[in-house]
Amino acid sequence: MKTVVHLLRHGEVDNPAGILYGRLPGYVLSDLGQQMAVVAAEWFADRDVTALVSSPLERAQQTARPLAEQLGLPVDTDDRLIEGDNHFEGSRFGVGDGALRHPRNWWVLRNPFRPSWGEPYSEMAARMLAALHTAREAAAGHEAVCVSHQLPIWTLRSHLSGRRLWHDPRQRECALASVTSFHFDGDQLRGIEYAEPAAHLIGLSPDAGTAKGA
């Protein structure tokens, strides 16, 4: 029995202040992000999607909405698809803003392999893997879409590809509104594919090359 589970990253978020928003409430899709969600939904138009699941965060729920309307499916919520926890949530934090050089942050940044500033990569991979298999079982013989966030999607892909989990955020292949597809034969993973349905819109986003819009 062949099943495909697609992990769809949400579209661009309205975040003019450049905050690392993480799990904070109130961060919703920008107008461009809503266009990305529509384009992503169109990408799935001819696919055999029978299950639709989303992270509980607003931006993910909004990204799922056009797909739900198109397919006539309810949007189930799975808390395991949520963004990773992060010590710097709610602040401006990134390469070039001086945060990495400030002594008050050094203890938090002491271990990039775990990482020490947030949810351990191993725990994130475990919860995402469990959510992946729940979706696979729900759509057995068909296809499922799970709307999630950049870091959890990339961490799961790295785990299932046999790569190390610690990494440079700038090297993630998980663009806004991108689709990472996991192909199963029964319960055995047979392949992983990646697509960017909204690639023509990504260049319009100032957030395209950052990890803030996770």
Automatic annotation (TrEMBL):
<dbReference type="GO" id="GO:0016791">
    <property type="term" value="F:phosphatase activity"/>
</dbReference>
<dbReference type="Pfam" id="PF00300">
    <property type="entry name" value="His_Phos_1"/>
</dbReference>
<dbReference type="GO" id="GO:0005737">
    <property type="term" value="C:cytoplasm"/>
</dbReference>
<dbReference type="InterPro" id="IPR029033">
    <property type="entry name" value="His_PPase_superfam"/>
</dbReference>
<dbReference type="InterPro" id="IPR050275">
    <property type="entry name" value="PGM_Phosphatase"/>
</dbReference>
<protein>
    <submittedName>
        <fullName>Histidine phosphatase family protein</fullName>
    </submittedName>
</protein>
<dbReference type="InterPro" id="IPR013078">
    <property type="entry name" value="His_Pase_superF_clade-1"/>
</dbReference>
